Amino acid sequence: MKLSTLVTNLDIKEINGDLNFNIKGIYHNSREIKRDFLFICIKGFSFDGHNFIDEAINRGAVALVVEKKISPRPGITIIRVNDSRKALAILANQFYDFPSRKLKLFGVTGTNGKTTITYMLRAIFQEAGFKTGLLGTAQNIVGNNINSSKMTTMESIDLQKTLKKMVEQKNDYVVMEVSSHALQLSRVEGCDFNVAIFTNISKEHFEIHKNFSNYLEAKKKLFLSLNKSKKENSKKFAIINIDEKYSKDFIDCNKVNLMTYGIEKGAEIRAKKIKMDLKSSSFIVETPVGETEIFLNFNGKYNIYNALAAMATAITQDIPLNIISRAFYKFYGAPGRYKLLEYGQKYTII
């Protein structure tokens, strides 16, 4: 791709050099740079990419995106921006031809429940006959490839590359966890979501947010990005746990279709007649399209909330209640989450 095309959507402060290069790849780690690559200099928490410019050039970089003013390098194009992390995401979208626009992309955010909800959604969509990819804390599932994950939400360049593979493999849906860190660090910048799901929020994960107010604002960014998504407005939905103390903050920033779920308050998707034992749980769920009974192969009120979030999302996609119920009956939980281990012992192992 021509460099001039690649930087079309960047907010550029300064350009020094030729934009006629044919760029064969982009990356932010100097060790991964190859011939005719664009190197994005990001100031990280431990390392500053600006300190590795010469290494990147020696490996074949022909252009740089920087935040700092740097001395000219002969034959190297230098593009200066305000925010190189955001620039990386914008460039990644452009380079991989905006793959999220060709998928039904669902993002789940919240302190707890993200992993389980993504696996529940994948189970439901697969039961309905849809090819579904998954990106999250435990695993990344792309077609028949299941790989362990290094972070909840991968870096923007890796995310767009992965979404491109999902397009090529003709996935119908992609369900992904969207962490507050990812939202704060622009990893999902440029992703065009169809659905955003809010689970819950508590006073945790202040590593980069410093305080709860910043943490809350970071979480809301997923819903603000949903408002701007280029997907058809009538097909965009915000799915919100109305029982949560801060649900109003998310509802107030939402400008697309809203679907609420809960147990305590008057939600559109609401559980009643809940029964739980050590191994399982069941409940009746009220929805805009009727009632049905749901059986889960695990217990916990929090898992009922997770199931309600997945149900609300599936209903926005016109998945019939009988298919949703059948998918839950076959679902035994997400990797690394609540699970009973049965080895014939006389005691319970969780």
What does this structure look like?
By secondary structure, this protein is α/β, with parallel strands linked by helices. The protein is built from 10 helices and 16 strands. It has an 11-stranded mixed beta sheet with strand order 9-8-7-10-6-11-12-13-14-15-16, with helices on both faces. Strands 1-5-4-3-2 form a 5-stranded mixed beta sheet, with helices on both faces. It starts with a helix and ends in a 20-residue tail after the last helix.
Quote the beta fraction: 15-25%
Largest beta-sheet characterization: 11 strands, mixed
Helix/strand/pairing category: alpha/beta
**Chain oligomer state:** single chain
**CATH topology type of the largest domain:** UDP-N-acetylmuramoyl-L-alanine:D-glutamate ligase
Unreliable segments (pLDDT under 50, ≥5 consecutive)? none
CATH class of the largest domain: Alpha Beta
Mean pLDDT: 94
Domains, number: 2
> CATH H level of the largest domain: which superfamily?
Mur-like, catalytic domain
Q: Label the CATH architecture of the largest domain.
A: 3-Layer(aba) Sandwich
The total count of strands amounts to 16
Query: How much helix, percentage-wise, in residues?
Result: 25-40%
- The CA-CA distance between the termini, in Å, is 52 Å
Helix tally? 10
Overall 3D shape: elongated
What pattern of helices and strands is seen along the backbone?
HEEEHEEHEHEEEHEHEHEHEEEEHH
